[in-house]
Amino acid sequence: MIDAAPERQRITLVPTKSATEFSFACAFSPHHLGPNLPSAEATITANHKAWPAYWKSGGAIDLSESKDPRWKELERRIVLSQYQMKVNEAGSLPPQESGLVNNGWFGRFHMEMVWWHATHWALWNRWNELDRVTAFYKEELPRAKALAKKQGYLGARWPKCVGKDGREWPYIIHAFLGWQQPHPIFFAELDYRAHPTRKTLEKWWPIVQATADFLSSYAYFDPATKRYVLGPPFFVASENTDPMITQNPTFELGYWRFGLRTAQMWRERLGLPQSSTWGKVLKGLAPLPVEDGRYVLYEGVPMMWTKFNFEHPCLTAVYGLLPGDGVDVPTMRRTLTSVGKLWNFDRTWGWDYPMLAMCSARTGDPNLAVNYLLTGAGGFQFDELGLATGGPFPYFPSNGGLLYSVAMMAAGWDGAPASNAPGFPHDGSWVVRWEGLSKAP
Length: 441
Known about the structure:
- By secondary structure, the protein is mainly α.
- The protein has a single domain, classed as Glycosyltransferase.
- The protein has helices at residues 6-9, 40-55, 71-89, 114-123, 127-150, 172-176, 183-194, 198-218, 250-269, 276-284, 304-307, 329-342, 352-362, 366-373, 396-411; strands at residues 60-62, 109-110, 161-162, 220-222, 227-229, 290-291, 294-295, 433-435.
- Helix 3 (71-89) crosses helix 15 (396-411), helix 7 runs antiparallel to helix 8 and helix 13 packs antiparallel against helix 14.
- The longest helix is centred in the N-terminal third of the chain and has 24 residues, at 127-150.
- The chain is globular, with a radius of gyration of 23 Å.
- The protein starts with 5 loop residues before the first helix and ends in a 6-residue tail after the last strand.
């Protein structure tokens, strides 16, 4: 956001009194660009070509034949989110949470949030945009390996909060947060599903291998319980527990399983033998923690439904955002019901609602899935331009989460019912026509 002090950050352009037209061009670059920038006319001409090409690429959804009167608002959010993500988030680096609108987090981006910013490009089949973002993993790999080695681990440890130089912003949460670690494997799998070639395997394999090596070496074998555990110290995705006593969080255990299982699949695709180390950890990981027939935030959490029922309800992400490694579906249904009844929705973030929608869809409640995407909660609203609430305004993880979840609900997911738009109600209230979307894992 432009600083209120004009002498510091504001440039004012004033046309002459006799001018009948006024145009200008500007550019931002870390390097000197020289005087010959494209004119305003040339920029407008380029936009006249680029925007139609963008809208004619990738996927599309049409809800206009639906009887539920909310279809128009959901479709408006879908269209405007595609516009806002292209304008704000299709750059050469992972975006900050507020895109290009203002300078959130001093220009740094959060590697755990890259999932919400970028995975939608894959399901909407706009790979030019996604390839530019995920290329950062290749650039960051040597630094991530050095960080893991320095801390006594194998493979690559992906930082939490960085800028272009890849150096991590020092903070206790950044040191102990874990859910960004399997992300590269998720991105790699999305790429391979769309482009199942040897070239894709070779493109991602150094990153997949290094990530899986870290996942297996980070899990600690507890001789007392004879299982591999995560933490302590460990910060869960909701960042609202004491990391010094947090162990075996539900979401992260499921994500570790997904990462190691998928990495083993990549070895098979490359004609390599299974890794005994990865397999031993995968088989020996602690089960997802259950209390009173419901999943909980982490193993042994006190007063789960009265003290820790705020921030991200990530115990549902393991079967929604993720395909459910280690999940018992009836237990997840009970968990989702408890979240709906007992969660403090005044203390949530924007991507929580797409996350809950995806869990609702996978557990067979498409009505609830749509309701979460059209919630009245203040943390997931979209203004007339499609700019979303849910965190530092505007909060683009809300837009990205909406696009990913809607694509998944329309095109389906692995193991989804064999019907059109399995994540939408089939009672006649919603008619979903779509093309060019991809199924979610």
